[in-house]
């Protein structure tokens, strides 16, 4: 089963609760919360208070994507917020193994995210512990950027590696997912599709999500 995870980064924050309910009613599977600290990435977005408000706005699982320095300091707060999935940028973790364990010990699903320039080998020795792997297909920081094509080869390589290891964490893609790119991304082997501007920038969320689902569930 392939999943659509709208990123609320592109939602109207003045009506955040309604915007989350709207994508839930439109067929979304997860709600993706992009946390940025102005240090790890050149943008500041939201913290645990918003993640907690998001969990109260929907019955869908909340997926927190931490694009922050020193994630260990904030993970307990995000766990308390009720998030069911939490990913950290592998590059931001000095002790990635410890960080992943910290998330899992709380009963939360743990993911590692890799920037476009980061090789898959960065997660080689934690791969067995991961519930999901996030391949960034833009440089993190902003919504609405163009999909980086080399991500497709990275997904294919990852998929082959997981098969060899007999592992099946979910593969998530984030950045530049839209009606033009989603089919090729799906063919490469992605399970969870994050999309911000393509969903929240569209006039009919239901139509957009249905189109996405048709294209990925062929
Ligand atoms: C990028 C964020 C993404 C972003 C995707 O730094 O991690 O989740 O919201 O935005 P779109 O779908 O507009 O590329
Ligand atoms: Zn994200």
Automatic annotation (TrEMBL):
The active site is at residues 34, 174. Binds 1 divalent metal cation per subunit. It is an enzyme of class 5 (isomerase). Its EC number is 5.1.3.1. Its cofactor is Mn(2+); a divalent metal cation; Co(2+); Fe(2+). GO terms for molecular function: D-ribulose-phosphate 3-epimerase activity; metal ion binding. Keywords: Carbohydrate metabolism, Cobalt, Isomerase, Manganese, Metal-binding, Zinc. SUPFAM superfamilies: Ribulose-phoshate binding barrel. One of its GO terms (biological process) is pentose-phosphate shunt. A divalent metal cation binds at residues 32, 34, 65, 174. Substrate binds at residues 7, 65, 141-144, 174-176, 196-197. Catalyzes the reversible epimerization of D-ribulose 5-phosphate to D-xylulose 5-phosphate. Belongs to the ribulose-phosphate 3-epimerase family. This is Ribulose-phosphate 3-epimerase. It comes from Desulfonema limicola.
């Amino acid at each position: 089963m392939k999943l659509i995870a709208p990123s609320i980064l592109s939602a109207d924050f003045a009506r955040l609760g309604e915007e989350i309910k709207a994508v839930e009613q439109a067929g979304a599977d997860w709600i993706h919360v992009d946390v940025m600290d102005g240090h790890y990435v050149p943008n500041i977005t939201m913290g645990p208070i918003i993640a907690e408000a998001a969990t109260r706005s929907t019955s869908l699982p909340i997926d927190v994507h931490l694009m922050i320095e020193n994630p260990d300091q904030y993970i307990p707060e995000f766990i308390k917020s009720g998030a069911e999935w939490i990913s950290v940028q592998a590059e931001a973790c000095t002790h990635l193994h410890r960080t992943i364990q910290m998330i899992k010990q709380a009963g939360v699903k743990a993911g590692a995210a890799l920037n476009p320039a980061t090789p898959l080998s960065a997660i080689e020795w934690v791969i067995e512990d991961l519930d999901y792997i996030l391949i960034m297909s833009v440089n993190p920081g902003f919504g609405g950027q163009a999909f980086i094509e080399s991500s497709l080869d990275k997904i294919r390589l990852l998929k082959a590696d997981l098969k060899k290891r007999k592992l099946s964490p979910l593969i998530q893609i984030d950045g530049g997912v839209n009606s033009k790119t989603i089919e090729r991304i799906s063919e490469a082997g992605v399970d969870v599709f994050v999309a911000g501007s393509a969903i929240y920038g569209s006039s009919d969320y239901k139509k957009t999500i249905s189109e996405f689902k048709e294209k990925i569930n062929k």
